[in-house]
């Protein structure tokens, strides 16, 4: 599985933040379909969405974060001991995901 797509709806009815939350959910769904995963990284260019993954407070798109946490538990049950990291990656700056990934690898080596 290389890619998943989900049409959230018309842009006049949804915000970028909701789309980023759906992206997190799709990443977990892809992870849930894999076998024998011990480490995984999810890259997101929205700091608010990343911060929301560690909060149980009500807020914008809370229903999506509830689903994210439910799916996260399913993923953890499927992959006991999973080390999951969610990273911020800058968007629209010219830095590509591969550059950010190389930085992650280097930071894990020190």
Automatic annotation (TrEMBL):
It comes from Dendrothele bispora (strain CBS 962.96). GO terms for molecular function: nucleic acid binding. InterPro entries: RNaseH-like_sf, RNaseH_sf. This is RNase H type-1 domain-containing protein.
């Amino acid at each position: 599985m290389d890619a998943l797509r989900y049409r959230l709806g018309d842009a006049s009815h949804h915000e970028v933040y909701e789309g980023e939350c759906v992206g997190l959910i799709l990443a977990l769904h892809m992870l849930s379909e894999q076998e024998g995963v011990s480490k995984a990284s999810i890259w997101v260019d929205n700091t608010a969405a990343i911060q929301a993954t560690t909060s149980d407070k009500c807020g914008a798109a809370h229903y999506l974060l509830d689903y994210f946490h439910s799916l996260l538990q399913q993923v953890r049950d499927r992959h006991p001991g999973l080390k999951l990291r969610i990273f911020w990656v800058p968007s629209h700056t010219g830095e590509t995901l591969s550059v950010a990934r190389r930085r992650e690898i280097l930071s894990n080596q020190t």
